[in-house]
Amino acid sequence: MSNALVNKYNIPGPRYTSYPTVPYWDNTSFSLSQWKTSLHKAFSSSNSEEGISLYIHLPFCESLCTFCGCNKRITKQHGVESPYINAVLKEWQLYLKLFDEKPIIKALHLGGGTPTFFSPQNLKTLINGILKHAIIAENYEFSFEGHPNNTTKEHLQALYDVGFRRVSYGVQDYNDTVQKAIHRIQPFENVKRVTEQARAIGYTSVSHDIIFGLPFQSLEHVKETILKTKSLLPDRLAFYSYAHVPWVKGNGQRGFKDSDVPSGELKRKQYEIGKQLLAEVGYEEIGMDHFALKSDTLYQSMISGDLHRNFMGYSDSKTMAMIGLGVSAISDSWYGFAQNVKSIEDYYKLLDADTIPVYRGHILNEEDLIVRQHILNLMCRFKTSWTPTYLYFDALPDVLVKLEEMEHDGLLLRTKNSVEVTPKGQPFVRNICMAFDVLLQRKQPHTQLFSMTV
Ligand SMILES: C=Cc1c2[nH]c(c1C)Cc1[nH]c(c(CCC(=O)O)c1C)Cc1[nH]c(c(C)c1CCC(=O)O)Cc1[nH]c(c(C)c1C=C)C2
Ligand SMILES: C[C@H]1O[C@@H](n2cnc3c(N)ncnc32)[C@H](O)[C@@H]1O
Ligand code: SF4
């Protein structure tokens, strides 16, 4: 990969876990009642056929990792667990009231923060409280994010007992210097232990999250981390580009200087060496920043064309309705998005008043729906087309003009009715999506909102 290309295309850009992207939501024409109507419509038309997905945000962590871009609250007081679980179950009740039939749960994901901050018993109470009012779908998928430093056999067993078969562990990097800089001391032995324990209990997919581009991280550090990862052979892994977004409120990206963060050129080398080392033992690249063994369902869904992308990253399949419970969680009714308030205090206050705690959202118009489909096609299948003709939209000719230079640089191939990302263009798929992102084209942000694309 030439440095010239990396430098040319390394610009701030969205990660496209949604379209429109969160900063471009039209919150002024969004209301709670519209959201309820939109979700009700999605639920009624899809629950009996495909079920729904649930995301539950569990925001507590015992200590702050200084690279982290997630919404979390640092505390060592475990007294916070029960009130939070009660609040989430109350929120679930408010949603249940909207529905005329029992929800069928196809996918359930516990994210954070640190779900394993909660005791095994409290996690069971939470899940049983959710499932009591629902039907579990036939091919259900329950997954959670575990912290290797505090996941115990008891956590793994308790969640297994209520249906969990997938776990992803935050690994990030194994080098001591990098671990010190990101304030996350986490020996390999911890990751090895929890990976082996999950397998022994019967989990069918263990995933590791790794990041390149962290402060002080060299090419050697990335190699060392990937080699150690390979020795445990996780079924999947996320290989994220470090998103340096110190302006996001409360994310605590400090303790190192901007100049301690690797350049775009070094990041691209780190990515390429990682990808090469992973390919040697059979990992296949899945869309952007994910890898899976051929035996994993994520790979199989990419081959069958079912791969989907949403706020949780990539998934095997999609449901039309996805409900996010907990602070800052985002829900998706296919025709609309809604996000919950971010502070725990505000969340409790709204629930005490029997109000679904969303504070912003967006209802998709016709153009949004078409552009979203193109972006999903690019992110999940590296190609898109406007046959069938309903995927044509008025601004498409302008988009195609924007693609000319990327075509010239060898990042994509165009036919009369389609765009296909070349292998050379795959690392720049976010840039290609940005050409389709008509809202971004119409209104460039005044301040930096997004992380860099490389
Ligand atoms: C497990 C933690 C999560 C990660 N991403 C999300 C969660 C719950 C989902 C998420 N993160 C952001 C948004 C946008 C809404 C918002 O509150 O602003 C959503 C839905 C914010 C965000 N997180 C990261 C960045 C760079 C941003 C800003 C917007 C952007 O650049 O797109 C960093 C980041 N967080 C996570 C990952 C995997 C990641 C970067 C690779 C985890
Ligand atoms: C859920 C996963 O999200 C990843 N994650 C969290 N914050 C960031 C960031 N700023 N940049 C890249 N990845 C991040 C971690 O790898 C974590 O394990
Ligand atoms: S990386 Fe995980 S443990 Fe660390 S602060 Fe973020 S959510 Fe908490």
From TrEMBL:
Keyword Signal attached: no
Residues at which S-adenosyl-L-methionine 2 binds: F67, C68, G69, G113, T114, Q172, R184, D209, A243
Domain of life: Bacteria
Protein encoded by which gene: hemN
Chain positions recorded as S-adenosyl-L-methionine 1 binding sites: Y55, G112, E145, I330
Metal-binding among keywords: yes
Organism taxonomic ancestry: Bacteria, Pseudomonadati, Bacteroidota, Flavobacteriia, Flavobacteriales
Name recorded for this polypeptide: Coproporphyrinogen-III oxidase
GO molecular function: 4 iron, 4 sulfur cluster binding; coproporphyrinogen dehydrogenase activity; coproporphyrinogen oxidase activity; metal ion binding
Domain Radical SAM core: 46-284
Locations listed in the record: Cytoplasm
GO CC terms of this entry: cytoplasm
Cofactor(s) needed by this chain: [4Fe-4S] cluster
